[in-house]
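Bug: token stream looks shifted between consecutive jobs. Job 1:
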Amino acid sequence: FRRAHTLTVLFILTCALGYVTLLEETPQDTAYNTKRGIVASILVFLCFGVTQAKDGPFSRPHPAYWRFWLCVSVVYELFLIFILFQTVQDGRQFMKYIDPHLGVPLPERDYGGNCLIYDPGNETDPFHNVWDKLDGFVPAHFFGWYLKTLMIRDWWMCMIISVMFEFLEYSLEHQLPNFSECWWDHWIMDVILCNGLGIYCGMKTLSWLSLKTYKWQGLWNIPTYKGKMKRIVFQFTPYSWVKFEWKPASSLRRWLAVCGIIFVFLLAELNTFYLKFVLWMPPEHYLVLLRLVFFVNVGGVAMREIYDFMDDPKFHKKLGQQAWLVAAITATEFLIVVKYDPYTLTLSLPFYITQCWILGIILVLTWTAWRFFIRDITLRYKEIRRQKQEHKYEQDKCLSNGDGHQSMMDEQNGNKLRERKL
């Protein structure tokens, strides 16, 4: 993927597409021709972007791989903008052009209901409630949080996002029945087993990557076949390792940035469920899986760009392009949800839920004001007071020893004269 060969690659691709079009007779199906033309246009754009887009912070397995996902981000954002400007009915029916089975309303599955772990009324299978919850989303939760840990690289932030999302499910289960789960499904299966185990394995992987010795050698310079295979496998690991130290309490800027990252993560998680609801996509549809794969690839680059911008703003003077695209995609998805089903989003929260969120927001704001304003003022006041006490102690010591008595008296008289003038 040499950039100097961009025009050659585009020329060959255009000729190949034109040759295929000329060989076959053009069908009279307008919808089919439209889809084929759109796909060909996207392929040409991706080919151009892979060779000409700006490199990101990652270089393994190849910079072209990450340029490809950057271009996919642009295509996905344009698709979201197109959906945003359609009517609700047209937008849902447009999904039929992608998959004819879409465009029909689907019932939401309720994971709540009977929450007995051991059901004595069912003699054949008293643990049927547990087995019903063990579906394909359990390994998806584990692998999802494993990959999120590799992106965030911080135990504290991962646990905060995991617990906060469970609180969001409690708060929004009156809007989406899919959020209604049993207490043990929330805290035992999700937070402890799936999310917790995924975060633990992710942190262990991060520890291995941070301790790994990064010595790269050319493939053809390795004499043994075993060494060549090992080198090929390690091509899919990072070229070098950067440990993320977010330090959210070190400054107000970093604290607000970390809060913003957590907010965007939670919003992207909520968009997954709300988009399925408003666009009538079943949870097991391949488009849902493709969206998650997309966010895994672009999210890692975005997090690295955000950390570089926060950690060294003098060298990284502006936020990276992938981070801006991820933020724009998340915001556009939320706008689609608001437009397509405003009634669901405007369903008022239960009063006790509102009280809990108000209390939580007040606690966070109070801690922020104490940590970055009141605490600093108090520390400065204590430091000034300590310096005055030390200065007074030195003066008393000089007077008691008889050293500098006259100079001290002159200084005191001068201070009194200045006070009178004032």
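Job 2, same session, no restart:
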Amino acid sequence: RRPADTEIDWKAYMQEVEGFANGTRDYTQLKGDTGPLVYPAGFVYIFLGLYYATGRGSDIRLAQYLFAGLYLLNLLLVFRIYCRTNKVPPYVFFFMCCASYRIHSIFVLRLFNDPVAMAILFLAINLFLEERWSWGCLFFSLAVSVKMNILLFAPGLLFLLLQRFGLLGCIPKLCICALLQVVLGLPFLLVNPVGYLTRSFDLGRQFQFKWTVNWRFLPEEIFQNRVFHAALLLAHLAGLGLFALHRWHSSKESILTLLKDPAKRKPASPRLTVNNILWQASCVCPLNASAWIVFILFSSNFLGVCCSRSLHYQFYVWYFHTLPYLLWCTPTTKLAHMPKVLLLGVIELCWNTYPSTVCSSLSLHICHGLILLQLWYGTAPTPVSHTPPPSRKPTATSKKAQ
């Protein structure tokens, strides 16, 4: 029998998009049993398709089959990223596929919109690894339009775009992201632009204390305090700044050189090609070109998760599939594999403790802190020559040189 709580969020989603199907274009009028619609417009279009595919939301079993297919597609996209990075041992994929009851529940039982956003995000990352930056930015923006948590990857993506294209070169990519948001939100922007923007991109929304997974050990008064929220935001910005300056940025020049045309930098790095990134990454940690891109994106998201004002149970999917990479992207001895597997197990246990307890939330923060320390010290700069390695292809000797 289907548990009663299966229908809670799904029913609310269907009620929210039903108003749009019936002609409502004022975003403030779209609501369900759990409250008003608070997701951007891409969510409406995707779940409107599910609304019609499942007989106006009545065939929940069909919806679960569709989400099971989404789950398999998501794994395929994640595995493809991991194969390109070549950092994670094969046995870890077992834990990613079979050892998380919570992830299976988020995808197939509860039918949340979080896995939809993450699947599109992983598609965008695959496109980045294929050097298809424009298409990657398009799908990144589409993922943001489903749920705003994807913006946690945005600082890392901005860094990569600046590194790859410079300031002027990355403006067209950012315009792609912005233009898609305008196009998707146009039906609502034409009717009530303020209502749409304040509802779908509400960064100041309060969370209920009873659902928090990560801050259960705090008194509720502190949890709801705006000063606490501001402190978390400052911690997040400080973490991003430190990683950008000392872990993502590998050149000895000022980070402001990222604003220059890549061809004019010293040493010149016109493209995020394999040779160039291998040289840049060797200054920080032994990652290949794909792994270096993934490291920046995944660590950007992880910093945001660590500093989140509240993590609800469905938010686990925000970073579950990135955890193995974050744990194994740094140099690992044979004896160090077991503690990393143990960390994965403790994090899983914390997310499966319902309701959360003081012990489970503290344990989650400790695990996050240990991963952050590993990322910081495991990617510390090493004293290497800053002359880019010569290309493997033999170059022709000029007549003058002869």
